[in-house]
Design a protein that fits this description.
The structure holds two protein chains of two kinds.
Chain A (H helix, E strand, L loop, with lengths): L1 H21 L2 H26 L7 H17 L5 H20 L7 H20 L12 E2 L5 E2 L2 E2 L3 H23 L2 H11 L1 H6 L4 H27 L1 E2 L6 H14 L3 H17 L1 H4 L2 H15 L25
Helix pairs in contact in A: 1-6, 2-6, 2-9, 2-10, 2-11, 3-4, 3-9, 4-9, 6-9, 7-9, 10-11
Chain B lengths: L5 E10 L2 E11 L4 E5 L6 H8 L7 E6 L2 E2 L5 H6 L2 E3 L12 H7 L17 H20 L15 H13 L5 E5 L7 H16 L3 E5 L3 H7 L2 E6 L2 E6 L1 H6 L1 H15 L1
Parallel strand pairs in B: 3-8, 3-9, 6-7, 7-8
Antiparallel strand pairs in B: 1-2, 1-4, 4-5, 9-10
The chains are: A mainly alpha, B alpha/beta.
The structure holds adenosine-5'-diphosphate and magnesium ion (MG).
The site of magnesium ion has 3 residues of chain B, from helix 1.
Chain lengths: 318, 259
């Protein structure tokens, strides 16, 4: 497994780096969609997989980021790049505000509450609250990407923007795994009482997980808004949250598992067009089968790394 | 002198109609190995839960170094140098032995939340320094060879050692052990005794619950005996062994079983 991973990542990154040059424009769009949803699914993994909190509202944070970019661009004329800080910050702050009162809830209650948040969000944007969300049609005609006057309109540019966001996300997740904060999330997921009894203020790390997951999802929202030059409410519906939730669980909360899940859910239907209308049906069955056959996910997460000097000669494991 | 003393005064904890701990008072002094004994269901674990913030006693006071710690949360109490183990081992079972012990370094690590997103040279040094502390504990508890193994797959005796190593990684002032010998064989119990003495020699005060009378008599300096949540005796192991009330309530019941 370790050796596979050593080769798999460089190959994956290399393939992803040259991909847009071998694809036609339709498949480039599919690849961008894959990258965006991979980032959202990974952001959900921080909350659900790493920290064990049953968040069923990840599409809300994704949508908040997308709408932040769309509104600032469309209403206030900010360039897309300039909207990025707020498209991360607003969802992150909302993550803190929404999570604050609910993170102490047991899994099932937390789940229902986050569904509620997601539904309220979609209702708000649909009903054009404040007159800036564009109602059921959403907001369209956004500017394309440009950076210091360099025009990045082409789909290949958008692809690399999305790819950069995925790399950033993977980098953050790697840093998280080797930090006090990241380990605290694992500990509280495994046994909250034991974590508190060893000195961890679990509440802080739960809220931090929400903030971080929300911020990353928000950034993915910006990429989404750029790809379609538009945002609309149904893209952030609660059913999308269900998909992200399922992808993390079925994938097994590991990076390869989550990427496979996103691929199966969002890319396979494009490859088999006739399969497209059946995708929920088939994915539903795939979820059921995966959970029965591999209850800990297709590729179960391995926890944080320990330094090499701790692994002694006469080791039984690893 | 309020130095490293734990003083319980009239601590009472009720569950519905049941008074699990009834106006219990005792004092643990620095450097002691202090034992709490009593029959099953006497309220020993509940007392520990009241000290470590898992429960808040309805009445009484729990003073540590002169500070009232009753009502503090478990992590606040750890921050004040009191760490515990559980009667029913509570490890992070999918995680490796080393990661479990590393959890004890959590409060010692000065890393901020944002170091979870971006590392700095300083945070990397902090990380490494704490892993070296983990290495020390693994050596001390003879766990080095298991460092990378998930704790859930290890035998009971080793799991108990991991739990103690995790607690010791905090560098506690007071270590609280809830039936550390439960489930151990004779050889493991002997090793545990040596470990407890070594921990005390490091300057750590030890408060333990034990069921195994032989072990308690051997390891503790001072004892409190409780039954139905109430203290029925206290003293040195020699004095306790001769105390008629203890023999009646606790040792006596064992004789009954033998007859
Ligand atoms: N969380 C709880 N809820 C209700 N009753 C409890 C709880 N914890 C302990 N008790 C009761 O309190 C009494 C003391 O239990 P405990 O402290 O675990 O005893 P010991 O550790 O001495 O065996 C028992 O009668 C037990 O059933
Ligand atoms: Mg007990």
């Amino acid at each position: 497994m370790k050796t596979i991973q050593r080769f798999a990542y460089p190959i994956f990154f290399a393939v992803m780096a040259i991909l847009p040059h071998v694809l036609d424009s339709r498949w480039q769009a599919v690849a961008i969609t894959f990258l965006i949803f991979a980032v959202v699914a990974l952001s959900q993994d921080i909350i659900l997989g790493k920290s064990g909190m049953f968040n069923m509202g990840q599409a809300l944070f994704f949508g908040l980021g997308a709408y932040t970019t769309a509104i600032l661009n469309n209403e206030y004329g900010w360039s897309i790049i300039a909207t990025i800080p707020l498209a991360i910050l607003i969802p992150a702050v909302c993550g803190v505000l929404l999570a604050g009162p609910i993170v102490h809830l047991r899994g099932d209650y937390l789940l229902v509450t986050t569904i509620g948040f997601n539904i309220v969000f979609v209702q708000v944007v649909q009903n054009n609250l404040g007159g800036i969300t564009g109602g059921p049609n959403g907001i369209f005609g956004l500017d394309s990407l440009s950076f210091y006057g360099i025009d990045l309109t082409s789909q290949v540019s958008v692809y690399y923007f999305a790819f950069a966001v995925l790399l950033l996300t993977l980098g953050i997740m790697r840093n998280l795994a080797g930090s006090k904060a990241g380990r605290a999330m694992h500990y509280l997921r495994e046994d909250q009482l034991a974590a508190e009894s060893i000195g961890i203020n679990t509440r802080i790390y739960k809220i931090f997980a929400f903030a971080l997951g929300a911020g990353i999802a928000g950034l993915a929202g910006t990429v989404f808004a750029v790809q379609y030059s538009a945002v609309s409410p149904e893209a952030f519906d609660f059913i999308q949250s269900v998909l992200f939730f399922s992808i993390v669980i079925v994938g097994g909360s590991s990076v390869p598992g989550v990427l496979i899940g996103v691929f199966v859910m969002f890319v396979l239907p494009e490859i088999f067009r006739e399969f497209a209308t059946w995708r929920f049906f088939i994915f539903g069955f795939a979820m059921i089968a995966a959970m029965i056959l591999r209850p800990r996910g297709i590729i179960p997460a391995t926890f944080g790394k320990i330094p090499k000097f701790l692994i002694k000669e006469n080791n039984h494991g690893a | 002198m309020a130095h490293n003393e734990l003083i319980l005064t009239d601590v009472t904890k009720r569950f519905g109609g049941l008074t699990a701990v009834d106006a219990l008072s005792f004092k643990v002094s620095a450097g002691q190995i202090y034992g709490i004994i009593g029959p099953n269901g006497a309220g020993k674990t509940t007392v520990f839960n009241c000290i470590t913030g898992i429960y808040k006693s309805e009445q009484g006071s729990v003073k540590w170094r002169g500070e009232e710690i009753r009502g503090l949360t478990p992590y606040q109490i750890v921050d004040r140098g009191i760490v515990r183990t559980f009667q029913t081992i509570r490890l992070f079972s999918q995680m490796s032995v080393a990661e479990n012990v590393m959890s004890g370094r959590h409060i010692k690590s000065k890393q901020k939340l944002w170091h979870g997103i971006v590392h700095s040279p300083w945070s990397k040094r902090d990380e490494l320094a704490n892993w070296h502390k983990v290495e020390e504990q693994l050596d001390f508890f003879n766990l080095s060879e298991f460092a990378a193994i998930p704790t859930g797959s290890l035998p009971y005796g080793i799991q108990r050692r991991v739990e103690m190593a995790r607690a010791m990684a905090v560098d506690p002032t007071l270590l609280i052990l809830d039936e550390p010998a439960a489930g151990l064989n004779d050889k493991e119990t002997m090793e545990l005794l040596q470990t407890i003495f070594k921990i005390r020699d490091k300057g750590v005060t030890v408060l333990l619950i034990e069921h195994d009378m032989d072990m308690v008599m051997e390891v503790t300096d001072y004892l409190t005996v409780i039954n139905f949540g109430k203290k029925i005796a206290e003293g040195t192991p020699e004095a306790i062994q001769k105390d008629p009330a203890v023999i009646e309530a606790y040792l006596g019941s064992e004789d009954d079983d033998d007859e």
